[in-house]
Amino acid sequence: MERSPISRRTLLSLTAAAGAGAALAACGSSGPGTSSGGGKAGTASYWFLTGQPGEGIRQAAAERFNKANPDTKLQFTAFENDAYKAKIKTAIGAGQAPTLIWGWGGGGLKSYVDAGQVEDLTDWFGQNAPIKDKLFPTSFGPATINNKIYAMPCETVQPIVLYYNKKVFDQAGAKPPQSWGEMMALVETFKGKGITPFSLAGKSRWTNMMWLEFLLDRIGGPEVFQSVFEGEKDAWSNPAVTDMLTKLVQLIDAGGFGKGYSSVDAGNNADQALLYTGKAAMMLHGGWTYGSMKNDGGKFVADGNLGWMNFPGVEGGKGDPTDTVGNPGQYLAISSKATAEQKETAKKFFQTGVLDADETKAWINDGGSVPVVKGTESVLAASPDAAFLKFVYDTSVNAKVFAQSWDQALSPTAAEALLDNIAKLFQKQVSPQQWVTNMNQVIGK
Predict the structure, then answer these.
(1) Which CATH architecture has domain 13-155+329-404?
(2) Average pLDDT, stretch 272-284?
(3) CA distances from 276 to 167, 204, 279, 437 (A)
């Protein structure tokens, strides 16, 4: 679905008619704090996240571009997720952003637009229709603010997935849960076997958020968070929110995440390791972790021990269990503070470097991901990861609503309050009622 004019679901819920999304940019770096590129007038700076296999794929794309364009290179630097979020926010606030601003669209991009920090790319895309047409139309939703396009979608679609360890399930005589009630019942099943039911990197906050996103969607439907997104007063007071928070507290109290989950860090993939080593039975996490587990988990993925599914429905809930949440796209914006030469380098990268043929194949074959590029079905089917890729593609295509992750849909101010209160909820520092009160105070900010 084209996003112009923008619909009511604007940056949040995207009808996925052909898959939706893209995970950030087509670049890379040799490591945190390191960079590559020339120092000429046309050199464009570019920051992105660390983590394999994505980091290597991005780096290779940037290096191909630099080799083909020795006078207009990309200078790229890699940062760990949380460090990047802090650094990019500070840099943009100080008017010192990199030429290419790598992000998740939505509320964060809107704040940049409101501050005049990023280029309007609407006319450029109009003049370069083949570039826009090769991408999934729904990926432009979070890139569009007030009916104008401010960022280039790229990389891969990334729904949130409920993973499970098939071997652990077989040993426990258990089956994948088909409802919230079955999920709760499995907590006792796996605790009785000395296995953590759900691996969770509680130290990283945003990983906790995935549980709230899916539970609220399944209980109240997408309209509940849509009201928050649209700034409706006291929207968090919807009874479905209290129901969601109460159920989550019950899961925590039941030992669903085991002991010590608040010290587990997603930055070093410690939560994934718990799953593929059999210390945990299930894990709710992004589609991108399939590639990480394939890369780091030995023969776990190759031997067929990794299972996956969409988050099940909640008994009596209004939500559609075929809907999904996650990243319908990540995006590259161009800093309005960049020089004319740097902006031209960035746009040339959009034309010739972002999701070129080599990068597209790498995301499929090395990253175990579904690129946002049209016409890749035959390559997906030929991949050794075809089963997972088909699941991701089908989930994205069949979902009536593909909701953007909350911390990306909201403004940076509201998102920080959200993550802070989610962390406090998981640590039992706020009650569901206090959580609702706290979050209502930042609606629209």
Answers:
(1) 3-Layer(aba) Sandwich (3.40)
(2) 98
(3) 10, 19, 8, 39
